[in-house]
Design goal:
This protein is an alpha/beta fold and 303 residues long. It has 11 helices and 13 strands. The strands form 3 sheets. A 6-stranded mixed sheet has the order 5-6-7-3-8-9, sandwiched between helices. Strands 11-12-10-13 form a 4-stranded antiparallel sheet. Strands 2-1-4 form a 3-stranded antiparallel sheet. A hairpin with a 2-residue loop joins strand 11 (241-247) and strand 12.
Length: 303
């Protein structure tokens, strides 16, 4: 099956700033992909090329095999950018009906609002919504037309924990129907909770691409946790240790070789207890991968 999204050797600059540098990426039908990266990494620029708001300087971008700037290609596309303007005097139900009128087979107003727990706000003017309510409505609007491809840029920014989990479930349900979702997020736990595939972007390049397990495996680190009265600098001197985080007597070490570290720890006269060895978290992998990329010298363009 042909991929729904294809970027081939894409480069995009803004003046002297390189936002994306020779990026190639494919997203297949039915995938739920999480894009991770620090501010300025190129995530928002990438989405703006996929939804047709911008053109690449070189390389090609295709959705459903077509140029994303083609209106026919965008009929099956839903998107929520970082900043979404809503007419402040229109009511929530009116906004849903207005957007639905642009599609041949939209969801009903009741279905859209129920998915995002907005039914009780049907008659509320959008100007009177809280920031979190506006954000949920913006994401809901991206699904009104039953798009096969949904692009979400930081979809849960400004949401509390309960609202975030409501939105997560709505996206899981929509993805379960066979639709494709690509989202960016600063919340690493969000990508862990939702994404089946993780793409890490840093300094305009793809640094890692694969399943959550694949991305974690790409970082050859293990986490060792223990309790010890020893000072952190003594633990940091053990072989293979790259990082030590201490909270009282609780220490968390990152190491390139946990077997060697544990053997040396046992041989030493360092007192310890409660030893645990495990894989790194997505956050630790993310920080390790992006630390290797050159630091971005600009704020990412978000328009």
């Amino acid at each position: 099956m042909d991929p729904i999204v294809t970027l081939t050797n894409v480069r995009r600059t803004f003046g002297t700033v390189v936002a994306l540098d020779d990026v190639s990426l494919e997203v297949g039908a039915g995938e739920l992909v999480g894009l991770l990266g620090p501010n300025g990494a190129g995530k928002t620029t990438l989405l703006s090329l996929v939804d047709g708001r911008r053109r690449p300087d070189s390389g090609t971008v295709r959705i459903f095999g077509q140029d994303p700037r083609t209106p026919a290609a965008r009929l099956a596309l839903g998107t929520t950018p970082q900043e979404t303007g809503l007419p402040p005097t229109l009511r929530v139900g009116e906004v849903v009906d207005f957007v639905a009128g642009h599609y041949p087979d939209p969801m009903s107003r009741a279905e859209v609002l129920a998915r995002f727990d907005l039914t009780g706000l049907t008659d509320r003017q959008t100007g009177g919504l809280s920031g979190g309510q506006r954000r949920r409505l913006a994401v809901a609007l991206s699904l009104v037309g039953r798009p096969r491809l949904v692009l979400l840029d930081e979809p849960t920014t400004g949401l509390d924990v309960e609202a975030r989990r409501t939105l997560w479930q709505a996206l899981r349900d929509y993805h379960a129907d066979g639709n494709t979702i690509v989202l960016t997020s600063h919340y690493l736990e969000e990508v862990e909770a939702l994404a089946h595939r993780v793409v890490v972007i840093g300094a305009g390049r793809v640094l890692a691409d694969g399943s959550l397990g694949d991305v974690l495996a790409q970082v050859s680190l293990r986490r060792v946790a223990l309790r010890s009265p020893a000072p952190p600098d003594r633990l940091a001197a053990l072989p293979g240790v790259t990082q030590v985080a201490a909270d009282g007597e609780t220490h968390r070490l990152l190491t390139t070789d946990s077997d060697v570290l544990v053997r040396e720890l046992v041989r030493s006269d360092i007192p310890f207890r409660g030893l645990e060895v495990g894989g790194v978290s997505l956050e630790e992998a993310f920080l390790t991968l992006t630390a290797a990329a050159p630091a971005a010298d600009r704020e990412e363009v978000t328009a």
